[in-house]
Amino acid sequence: MVAGGWTINGVEPNGVPSHVMEWIQHWAEICQPTDIHIMDGSDEEDQMLKKMMVEQGVLIPLTKYQNCYLARTDPKDVARTEARTVISTKNKIDTHPVTDTYSGKLGHWISPEDLDKKIQSLFPGCMNGRTMYVIPFSMGPVGSQLSRIGIEITDSAYVSVCMRIMTRVGRQVLNVLGDSPFVKGVHSVGAPLKPGEHSALWPCNPDKVLIAHKPETSEIISFGSGYGGNSLLGKKCLALRLGSSIARKEGWLAEHMLISGVTMPNGQKKYITAAFPSCCGKTNLAMLQPKLPGYKVTVVGDDIAWLHPDENGQLRAINPENGFFGVAPGTNFQSNPYAMASIFKDTIFSNVALTPDGGVWWEGMGPKPKSCIDWRGKPWRASSSTPAAHPNSRFCTPLVNCPVLDPAWEDPHGVPVSAIFFGGRRPSGVPLIYQAISWEHGVFMGAAVKSEATAAAEFKGKQIMHDPFSMRPFFGYNFGDYLRHWLSIGKLLKNPPPIFMVNWFRRGHDGGLLWPGFGDNIRVLEWALNRSAGQLPASGRCVGWVPTHDGLDIHGLEESPDMEALLATPTRFWREEAAEIRQYFKSEIGDSLPTEMWRQLDKLDKRIEVFSDYNVEEDEYHSYEPIG
Ligand code: GTP
Ligand code: SPV
Ligand code: MN
Q1: Cα–Cα distance between 258 and 402 in angstroms, integer?
Q2: By CB atoms within 10 Å of each CB, which of 28, 381, 505, 521 scores lowest?
Q3: Would you state the pLDDT for residue 610?
Q4: Residues with catalytic roles
C-alpha cells in the first residue's frame, strides 16, 4: 500500500519487482509527489486520466470525433530543445567526435558530475502537489528478443496517456521484465505546486529545460518540458539516443527511419527504410497512396527503425514504437489520405486549431474555416495573418488505426530490408534521386546529409544545416564511431541493401517545387526498386547513379515535370558542396572520422571533375532565391 509513506494507486503494488519499487521510492523521496500511480495500461485507467484532464482543462474533448482530444502547450514549449539536450559520458570523446575544437553540433556533452549537480538543483520537491505516474513500457513487441523495456516516471498525466499510444504500456511489461535491468527514465514538468495553488493548463519550466542521457547507466533525465520529443522518453531518448549506443555495443543500428512495404504490380513485395530529417517527409512516405497503378504501400513505422543483421546476413527492421507522433500541417486527403483515415479516433492532437463544430484544422488540411480558436486558444479568422495551428502541431495516434498497417508490423524478427534511403530538403543542386556506388559510398552520403531547418526543433529561419543520417539531434555516441559502426555493419551483410538519396524539395527558377511529391513519390521508389533488382540502366554522374532522362515513369502526371532540372548535377554547385563537406568533416569530426570517409570525399572530388561536362544547369544554383 505504501512505499516510503506514499500511497500507490491506493492499492498493494502486487507484482511490481522489488528493484523497480526501490527505484520508484528513491525518486519519490527526491521529487516529493503527493501520490504515486503505477500505470496498468487499461482502458479504464486511460478514460480516468482523460476525464481528469478534461475537468482540469488540460484536454479539450473533440466532439466531432471518437475519443479524440486537443492539448494546447505553453507557447514556449512547442518543439524539441536541442541546445538543452545533453549526453553524459565519463569521457567527452565518447559523446562528441572532436574535443579540442568542441562545438557541440554533433552532441552536447556534460560530465557526470555536472549533470548530478544540475539534477540536484532541479529535482528536489519538483513534484510537490502532483501525482507521480510510473509507466512501464516496451519498445518493440512485448517479449520480443529485439525489444527493450523502460520505465518512465513522470508528473504529467498528458505524458502518461501519450506514452500509452506511442509505446506498449502496462502490467504485462513488468511480467516480462522480472528482475532484469531496465532503462530508467525520469521526467518532470518542473512546476511544483504550493498547497492550494492551481496548476497552469500546460505546466512547464522553459528556462530550466534539461534533457539528459546517461548511456553508461541507461538513464534518462528530463526536466521542464512536456513536448513530445522531450517528454515521451521511449521515443527519441530511449529508441534513438540510448538505443544507438546500445546498438553499437550489440552489433545493430538504431535509426531515425521509416519502414514500409512496397508491393509491386507483379505481386512482389520489398521493404524499404528511409531516413529524412524531422519534418521532411517520413510519415508521408511511410504510408503513401501510390499514384502508379498496381502498387501498394504498407507501413511498419514512420519514425524509428531498429536494424539487425540476422544470422543469414540479411538486414531486418523492427519499429520499436506503437503509434504515430506525426506533423499535422500539410496533412490532407490528397497528400496523405491514410493518415487522415487514421487520426479521427483515439487521437491526442497538440497545438492544432479548434473548429466551432468540435473538430480540428491546420494549415494545408483543406479550406480555411471562417473562424476557429487558434493553437494559443485565441479567436482566429480566415483573414488572420498568423497560422491557426503551430507549424510543429502534431497528432498522436495508435498505429493500429492505420488502414495500410503492414501485416508484419509486429513480427518479432523484423522485416527484411531491400533498400535504404536518405533525403532532406534541398532547394537546389541535389537530384530527385541518385544511388550510391557502394555501401561505403552510401555511408558517406548519409554522413553528408543536409537539410533546411524546420519547426520540429527550435531554429531560426530556413538555414540549410548538416543533419547526418537525419540523426544530428539523436546521436547517443561519438559520430566518428557511429560511421565506423555503419561501415562494419555493411561487412556483416551478405548483400548490403543499395542506398539512395532522394530530394522531393528541389526548386525551379521561379522558386516553385519541381516535383509533385507525396503519392507520386512512388515513381521514384519504383526506379530505386528496379535498380535494386538490377533491372535498369542508370547514368553515372559525380554524385553516383542518376536515372537516365527517361528512367522514371512520369505518365499520368497532371503537369509534366522538368526532369532535366530535377536530375541535374551542376558542377559548380557540387564543387562548393564537396568543399563545404570537407570543411565540416574537418572541423566537426576531425580525427574521429574514419579514413574511408576521406577516401569517399576524394573520390567525389575526382568524379566532379571527370563529369564536369554535366554543367548545363550551372546557373540554377545562383538564380535560386529562397522563398517564404
Ligand atoms: P518527424 O515526425 O518530425 O520526424 O517528421 P517526418 O519526417 O515524418 O515528416 P512528415 O512526413 O510529417 O512531413 C513533414 C512535412 O513535409 C509535412 O508538412 C508534409 O506535408 C511535408 N511533405 C512530406 N512529404 C512531402 C513531399 O513529398 N513533398 C512536399 N512538397 N512536401 C512533403
Ligand atoms: C522529430 O522531431 O523528429 C519527431 C517529433 O519525430 S519528436 O518526437 O518530438 O522528436
Ligand atoms: Mn522524427
Answers
A1: 15
A2: 381
A3: 87
A4: 280
Q: What is the pLDDT of residue 623?
A: 36
Closest ligand 2 atom to residue 80 Cα is 9
**Going by CATH, does the domain composed of 8-57+80-251 fall within 3.40.50.1220?**
no
Is residue 11 within 8 Å of 136, Cβ to Cβ? no
Q: 99 in the Ramachandran plot: left (φ > 0), alpha (ψ -120 to 50) or beta?
A: alpha
According to the model, what pLDDT value does residue 616 have? 42
Q: How many angstroms is it from 254 CA to the middle of ligand 3?
A: 13
Nearest CA to ligand 1 atom 19: 330
**How close is the Cα of 256 to the center of ligand 3, in Å?**
6
CATH class of 324-401: mainly beta
pLDDT at position 613 is: 62
Q: Give residue limits of the domains in the chain.
A: 8-57+80-251, 255-321+407-613, 324-401
- What is the pLDDT at residue 459? 75
pLDDT score for 12: 60
**Separation of 281 CA from ligand 1 center, angstroms?**
3
Q: Which whole-number Å values give the CA distances from 580 to 285, 452, 503, 596, in the listed order?
A: 29, 16, 19, 18
Per-residue pLDDT at 4: 60
CATH (one of 3.40.50.720, 3.40.50.300, 3.90.228.20, 1.10.10.10) for 255-321+407-613 = 3.90.228.20
Pocket test for ligand 2, best of 211, 231, 303 (most atoms within 8 A of CB): 303
Q: Which residues of the chain have pLDDT under 50?
A: 1-2, 615-628
The three-class DSSP label of residue 429 is coil
Nearest CA to 277 out of 448, 399, 440 is that of: 448
Structural element, H or E, at residue 214? strand 210-214
Specify the pTM: 0.96
Pocket lining: 255 vs ligand 2, CB cutoff 6 Å: no
Ligand 2 atom having least distance to the Cα of 256: 3
Instruction: Give how far the C-alpha of residue 174 lies from the chain's centroid of Cα atoms, to the nearest Å.
Output: 26
